[in-house]
């Protein structure tokens, strides 16, 4: 676009010289012969540049310039003063009024032409810059107003200079009207104030405004840009703090004296979404914890099952290898007893051999029993009843050994799914262990009850079985007054074949079998020493809300599943052990030992 | 009275010998031992026993496989048989024998009286 230049002088000859200096150089030239006319043309035609004579009778050049600059419509016109007055004070005055140049008369036409050319170039560049700035501002405004995060510009004094719509929505217009010092909550203004004041090392403050009256929402507030120049935001609902701020479209101002130097930009984020996500996460986490716990229990059961599998195979092998020779010896002895006439000594030898044979058979049978504790025949039963029945079976031995029994059985315990035979095996094992530990004289204490578990009382076995602090459990305590258990034996008790009993008296399988059975009931058994006094303390836990397990018919009572390695007839699965083996039921043994 | 014929199939010769000695000692039975499970069927066809003792776990052919073949053989399907096993415990067989889906099991180690009792029961003596 051709630059337009207004030439102003009250002396026509001067005007002609100016005109001739610039004519023919691709300018649009306008002419005014006095100050008033200059203003009129300037307002109407918006020239880019004005060559303005200072001394004019109606209105001098300085007054014209002042009026131009006061009117936003003409303020951008570049003014070059022309004057015969060449005092420095005059030049300074002209430039202070907003003139871009000051040329003293008489001037050389070439000089005028050169200066005008330079100022036109500057003007063009200024305009380009301004239009690019406007574009950038538009983009910025679009970004700012489409952001879900609020953006607030503060000046060094803590006044809000601008805020995007999201910030206004989140913090509330009322709060943005207030100076920083009055923001709620107080620690918010304090924190931001400290950062603004450059006193603090940190540059990020996170504050929850949940409790503020002005901000009804929980928000996070971050001081994003310290000491950066806040952006003047034309699209902002907030007017600039200083209305007289220089309206330079070119924005050529020095950051050091910009009004917002030392201020900050705050980023305000709505925390509701994050809280929702956090809540969802917590929920997922809980579900995960739960399934982890179930997994762990399942894993323990798997490990247990795998162990049993191995032991089962081993047991089958050993049983086969041992039982055949036992059978040979047995039948051989039976045959010899029939055919020989034995004297007294030989008869004793035979009886001893028969005893030894029985003992060997018992050991192998124990091993087989051990290997097949892998399924339960569950029926609702009362733990107290099982305890009473089992006690009856050892009553005679307890009396003989002069062992006192104290039972503290909680009344009204709910019935739970138990395999009665297997649980009796468990209880007998534990009672026998206690009796053997005490040998003679002593006290056996048996207590049952529903118990809310505390985390710190959980033993390793209880943890492994998936019990957690806070769980409600059916608890059985068995305490004796024997010597207790040596520290270095504590973690070997459940190992198969671990026994401190003399050869031939203990198989060391009792507690492994016991633990397997208890675990199959989804329970746990921990053994330690009593806190006070001498003796061992056995803690059995069962889930009080134990959902009945699906009854396993293919487990302990089936021959096919009992031992891997020996294929039994395929139809043998429904066979169950004779229920008459172990007396059960209170009728046969009236309670009260 | 004609002696009842009993075939003993077990891979352990000492065991079949002890069984035979105990059975023969009563003077009431004629007994044959077979320690090769794979030859059990041939021996049975030739010996024509009234009763067969079958070890469950044997190399070559298992007791229940032999039993299956016995039942499919028209000349042998009437023959009674008893399983001998090391794996079924006394507890499971009750006293002496167990009936498991129609099959009789005898747990090792077996006593002489149990043995004779089972034989008498099965042969209806
Ligand atoms: N109440 C107890 N007091 C002291 N030590 C115990 C007690 N219960 C068990 N033990 C120790 O744990 C070991 C293992 O017990 P476990 O029941 O597994 O086998 P056992 O009793 O030795 O043999 P079996 O059960 O075949 O008679 C015992 O030998 C004993 O040393
Ligand atoms: Mg024991």
Description:
The complex is a heterodimer of chains A (593) and B (125). Chain A is of the alpha/beta class and 593 residues long. Chain A has 4 domains: 4-142, Response regulator (Rossmann fold, 3-Layer(aba) Sandwich); 149-227 and 258-270, PAS domain (Beta-Lactamase), CATH 3.30.450.20; 276-373, Helix Hairpins; 375-582, 2-Layer Sandwich (Heat Shock Protein 90), CATH 3.30.565. In chain A, 43% of the residues lie in helices and 16% in strands. Chain A has helices spanning 12-22, 35-45, 61-70, 88-96, 109-146, 165-171, 173-177, 186-196, 272-339, 344-371, 383-400, 420-438, 460-464, 510-520, 559-562, and strands at residues 4-8, 28-32, 49-53, 78-83, 101-104, 150-154, 160-163, 219-226, 264-270, 379-381, 403-409, 416-418, 442-452, 472-479, 524-529, 536-543. In chain A, the strands form 4 sheets. A 5-stranded parallel sheet of chain A has the order 2-1-3-4-5, sandwiched between helices. In chain A, helix 9 runs antiparallel to helix 10 (344-371). Mean pLDDT of chain A is 77; it is low at 200-206, 210-216, 227-260 and 547-593. The longest helix of chain B has 13 residues, at 13-25. Residues 89-96 of chain B have low confidence and may be disordered. In chain B, a hairpin with a 2-residue loop joins strand 5 (97-100) and strand 6. Chain B has one domain (4-123): Response regulator (Rossmann fold). Helix content of chain B is 38%, strand content 26%. Chain B has 125 residues and is α/β, with parallel strands linked by helices. Chain B has helices at residues 13-25, 40-47, 63-72, 90-93, 112-123; strands spanning 4-9, 29-34, 51-55, 80-85, 97-100, 103-107. Bound molecules: adenosine-5'-triphosphate and magnesium ion. Adenosine-5'-triphosphate is lined by residues 429, 433-434, 437, 480, 482, 484-485, 493, 498-501, 506-511, 536 of chain A.
């Amino acid at each position: 676009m051709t630059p337009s230049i207004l030439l102003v002088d009250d002396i026509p000859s001067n005007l002609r010289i100016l005109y001739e200096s610039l004519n023919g150089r691709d300018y649009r030239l306008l002419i005014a012969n006095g100050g008033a006319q200059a203003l009129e043309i300037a307002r109407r035609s918006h020239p880019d540049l004005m060559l303005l004579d200072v001394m004019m009778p109606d209105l001098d050049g300085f007054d014209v310039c002042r009026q131009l600059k006061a009117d936003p419509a003409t303020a951008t016109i570049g003014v070059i003063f022309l004057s015969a007055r060449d005092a420095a004070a005059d030049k300074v005055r002209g430039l202070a009024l907003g003139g871009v140049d000051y040329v003293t008369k008489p001037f050389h036409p070439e000089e005028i032409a050169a200066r005008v050319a330079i100022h036109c170039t500057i003007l063009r560049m200024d305009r380009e810059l301004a239009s690019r700035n406007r574009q950038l501002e538009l983009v910025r405004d679009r970004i700012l107003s489409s952001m879900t995060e609020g953006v607030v510009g503060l000046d060094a004094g803590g006044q809000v200079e601008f805020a995007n719509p999201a910030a206004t929505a989140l913090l509330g217009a009322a709060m943005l009207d207030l100076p920083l010092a009055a923001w709620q909550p107080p620690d918010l203004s304090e924190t931001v104030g400290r950062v603004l004041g450059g006193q603090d090392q940190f540059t990020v403050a996170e504050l929850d405004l949940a409790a503020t009256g002005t901000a009804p929402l929980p928000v996070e507030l971050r001081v994003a840009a310290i000491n950066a120049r806040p952006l003047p935001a034309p699209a902002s609902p907030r007017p600039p703090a200083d209305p007289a701020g220089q309206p330079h479209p070119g924005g050529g101002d020095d950051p050091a004296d910009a009004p917002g130097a030392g201020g900050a930009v705050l980023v305000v984020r709505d925390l509701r979404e994050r809280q929702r996500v956090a809540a969802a996460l917590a929920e997922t986490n809980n579900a995960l914890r739960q399934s982890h716990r179930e997994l762990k229990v399942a894993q323990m059961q798997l490990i247990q099952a795998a162990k049993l599998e191995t032991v089962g195979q081993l047991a089958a092998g050993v049983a086969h290898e041992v039982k055949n020779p036992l059978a040979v010896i047995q039948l051989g002895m039976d045959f010899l007893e029939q055919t020989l006439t034995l004297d007294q000594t030989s008869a004793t030898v035979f009886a001893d051999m028969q005893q030894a044979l029985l003992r060997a058979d018992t050991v192998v049978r124990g091993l087989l029993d051990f290997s097949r504790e892998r399924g339960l025949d569950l029926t609702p039963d009362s733990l107290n009843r099982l305890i009473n029945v089992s006690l009856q079976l050892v009553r005679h031995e307890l009396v003989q050994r002069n062992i006192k029994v104290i039972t503290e059985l909680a009344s009204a315990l709910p019935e739970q799914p138990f395999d009665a035979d297997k649980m009796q095996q468990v209880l007998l094992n534990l009672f026998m262990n206690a009796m053997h530990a005490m040998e003679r004289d002593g006290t056996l204490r048996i207590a049952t009850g529903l118990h809310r578990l505390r985390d710190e009382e959980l033993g390793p076995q209880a943890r492994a079985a998936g019990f957690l602090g806070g769980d409600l459990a059916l608890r059985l305590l068995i305490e004796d007054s024997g010597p207790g258990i040596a520290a270095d034996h504590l973690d070997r008790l459940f190992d198969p074949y671990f026994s401190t009993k003399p050869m031939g008296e203990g198989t060391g399988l009792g507690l492994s079998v016991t633990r397997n059975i208890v675990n199959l009931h989804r329970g746990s058994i921990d053994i330690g020493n009593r806190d006070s006094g001498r003796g061992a303390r056995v803690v059995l836990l069962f889930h009080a809300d134990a959902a009945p397990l699906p009854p396993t018919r293919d487990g302990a009572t089936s021959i096919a599943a009992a031992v891997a390695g020996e294929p039994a007839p395929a139809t043998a699965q429904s066979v169950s052990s004779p229920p008459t083996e172990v007396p059960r039921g209170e009728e046969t043994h009236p309670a009260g030992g | 009275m004609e002696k009842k014929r009993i075939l003993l199939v077990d891979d352990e010769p000492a065991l079949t010998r002890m069984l035979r000695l105990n059975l023969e000692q009563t003077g009431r039975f004629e007994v044959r031992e077979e320690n090769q499970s794979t030859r059990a069927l041939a021996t049975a066809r030739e010996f024509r026993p009234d009763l067969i003792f079958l070890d469950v776990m044997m190399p070559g052919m298992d007791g229940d496989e032999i039993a299956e073949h016995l039942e499919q053989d028209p000349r042998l399907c009437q023959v009674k048989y008893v399983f001998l096993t090391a794996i079924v415990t006394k507890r499971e067989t009750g006293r002496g024998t167990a009936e498991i889906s129609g099959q009789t099991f005898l747990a090792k180690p077996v006593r002489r009286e149990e043995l004779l009792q089972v034989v008498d029961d099965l042969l209806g003596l």
